[in-house]
Design a protein that fits this description.
alpha/beta; Rossmann fold; 2 domains; 17% strand
Length: 277
């Protein structure tokens, strides 16, 4: 109950500020949305990440990008985690990939793990992925949640020519869906609703509706695997159906009972099966 009351209280304060300065209040709401409250490295995550063959810090502009490399003899696979997470979330999947001989690269997203930035968004994350891809030249990509969205934003630009396969786990189909759920959770007024959209267009040069994983997927030539749980409470299952309808060279695997995290042997085995064929 407290988890639902606190967001509404904060939303009410921002709504009140909006009566006096709508632009300031809307910008505050967007900053709040972009600020992760979790995702820093724990001792448990670090204990696994220390098993990496090498750890390299790259940069996008002045922002550090923390990467982890487990050497292998097969093709290179890049992994991009989701919101309020870090590369430690891939422990089980990396161990499986290592066992199969894959060369594995994981990166921490903006404002997560060991990477820099005070705020997070999928566009900035896609730039991080671009820097890491140019350094390590992966041919396969695995992304979870908004990490999957960032992968699609990166690949749809068609400037990176080495992508052969892409796995999207619990991916959101459109940014407007994410924002709608955030706005409803906070209880924002229509004034703040519209103001956030205006702030996004000013910041990124396009309205929220432009940033659509489903629409962008039409531009991706790589073979795709979509995995989504029918009972996902974070990203609705319909999002997977929307992406699948647009991603011409993709297969959808639906699960039940694995939730948004999509962890476990079944998921890892399906990914390896997909990568190896």
């Amino acid at each position: 109950m407290i988890k639902t009351i606190i967001p509404k209280l904060i939303g009410g304060i921002i709504n009140f500020i909006g009566f006096f300065n709508s632009a300031y209040a809307s910008n505050l709401a967007l900053k709040l949305f972009s600020k992760p409250r979790d995702g820093q490295l724990t001792s448990y995550a670090n204990s696994f990440l220390e098993t990496a063959t090498t750890k390299t810090t790259l940069h996008y502009n002045s922002l550090p990008i923390q990467t982890y490399h487990w050497e292998g003899t097969k093709e290179t696979v890049l992994l991009a985690h989701g919101w309020e997470s870090n590369s430690g979330r891939w422990r089980h999947k990396i161990q499986k990939l290592q066992k199969e001989g894959y060369n594995v690269i994981a990166l921490d997203g903006p404002a997560h793990g060991g990477s820099g930035s005070d705020t997070f968004n999928a566009i900035l994350y896609s730039e991080f992925i671009n820097v890491v891809s140019e350094e390590f030249k992966p041919t396969s990509f695995i992304g979870h949640s908004v990490g999957a969205m960032a992968l699609v934003i990166f690949l749809q630009k068609q400037t990176y020519t080495h992508a052969r396969k892409i796995v999207l786990l619990g991916a959101p189909s459109a940014f407007i869906g994410i924002m709608k759920r955030y706005k409803e959770m906070m209880g924002y007024s229509q004034q703040i609703y519209k103001g956030i959209d205006t702030q996004i267009e000013l910041k990124f040069g396009n309205p929220p509706s432009y940033f659509s994983t489903a629409d962008f997927a039409r531009n991706i030539a790589a073979e795709g695997l979509l995995i989504h749980d029918k009972n996902d409470r974070i990203i609705p299952y319909q999002d997977a159906l929307d992406i699948d309808a647009q991603f011409k060279n993709a297969k959808l695997i639906s699960t039940e009972g694995l939730g948004h995290s999509l962890k476990g042997d079944f998921i890892s085995d399906e990914i390896i099966k997909f990568l190896s064929h």
